[in-house]
Amino acid sequence: MSSLKDKLGKILLEKGLITEIQLKDAEEERKNKGEKLSKILVQKGFIDERKLMGALGEHLGIPPIDLSKLKLDPEVVELVPQNVCEFYCMIPVAKIGNALSVAMADPLNVFAIDDIKLMTGMEIVPTIATETEIIEVLKNYYTSKSGMTEVLDDVDDMELADDKQEEMDLDKLTADGDEAPVIKIVNVILKEAIESKASDIHIEPLEKTISIRYRVDGVLYQRVSPPKVLQNAIISRLKIMAKLDIAERRLPQDGRFRIKLKGKNIDFRFKWKSCYYKY
User: Fold this and answer.
1) CB-based contact 174:147 (threshold 8 Å)
2) What class, spelled out in words, does domain 168-272 have in CATH?
3) CA separation for the pair 132, 45 (Å, rounded)
4) Is the overall model pTM greater than 0.90, yes or no?
5) Alpha carbon of 145 to those of 31, 209, 226, 271: distances in Å?
6) Element (H, E) at 227
7) Strand pairing of 253-261 and 167-169?
8) What CA–CA distance (Å, rounded) separates 225 from 152?
9) Which residues contact 14 (CB under 8 A, 6 or more apart)?
10) Number of helical (H) and strand (E) elements in the chain, helices listed first
């Protein structure tokens, strides 16, 4: 099976998505710069990256996937090491039985598929995603993970501290090593959301973990999630910050709190409602 780079130009020409002149121009630049043909075609504005992905997926009979709308399961993502994902520009997205679905920029890369199969002992089912999305998702996932790993390593004793301040200095709180682990986790979540310029933070209970997603420019991005055991403690901490009744488990609640980050006051609105994970 040949690699995608050997078929790309022909596929796009046959579908009428680029012209022969555009392909010749891009091929010439590829030879001079050594960059991927797909990247050059997109950079020159000859084709939109998502259209390119859709055309390839249709031609190859490989389903395209929109990673921005996907909830990543950390247990699935980490079946393949980070350096391997980055090297092959791919990311595991789902596991069903002994089959591992993998989003790839080049789903015809047999070397990548063989390596992942050998590494996981699973059957690999390739899907196609844009290179830009894969790189962005990998960056967001592992940046988030590195920021939370140290905190999660210390989770043995979870005590909640009652904070009666009207305004909380997040720089001080995230740097304070004496805080209870759950407080540090919440501080990391809030600080990361602010630095990502997120408009919303979605915290949702799942079967074995907690889904944490940030909405940035209208798109939800999955972050590394704490273990399920921390779910009630995290929600209780947020309720305390918003001065809500932590004993209330049935009725929806709505509160506010203010934090300070790098000398700037930031207001949060916290909304909570009861829900259950459905098997």
Assistant:
1) no
2) alpha beta
3) 15
4) no
5) 38, 14, 10, 25
6) none
7) parallel
8) 10
9) 59
10) 11, 9
DSSP symbols for 136-166: HHHHHHHHHHHHHHHHHHTTT---PPP---S
As given in the structure block, the two tokens for residue 69 are 């709308």
Strand, coil or helix: what is 7? helix
Contact 60, 107 (CB under 8 A): yes
Cα 67 from chain centre: 8
From first to last of its 279 residues, what are the pLDDT tens digits of the chain?
455 666 788 889 888 999 999 999 998 988 888 888 888 999 899 998 888 888 888 888 888 888 887 878 888 888 999 899 999 999 999 888 899 999 999 888 899 999 999 999 999 999 999 998 999 888 888 776 665 555 555 443 333 334 444 445 555 544 444 456 778 888 888 888 888 889 999 998 887 778 888 888 888 887 777 777 788 888 989 999 999 988 888 899 999 999 888 788 889 999 988 876 554
Task: Collect contacts of 197-205 with beta carbons under 8 A, ≥24 apart.
Answer: 203/234, 203/235, 203/238, 204/275, 205/231, 205/275, 205/276, 205/277
Beta-carbon contacts of 192 under 8 Å, excluding residues fewer than 6 positions away, are 144, 147, 214, 223
Using CA atoms, how far residue 24 sits from 21, 55, 163, 172, in Å, is: 5, 19, 65, 57
Structure tokens at 241: 């910050």
Which residue in 141, 130, 89 sits closest to 112, CA to CA?
Answer: 89
User: Hey, what are 214's tokens?
Assistant: 């940030």
Please tell me the CATH code under which domain 74-145 is placed. Answer: 3.30.300.160
Write the secondary structure of 91-131 as one string of H (helix), E (strand) and C (coil): EEEEEECCEEEEEECCCCCHHHHHHHHHHHCCEEEEEECCH
CA-CA distance, 160 to 233, in Å (whole number)? 8
**Within 10 A of 66 (CB to CB), how many other CB atoms are there?**
13
Token digits for 143?
A: 């940046």
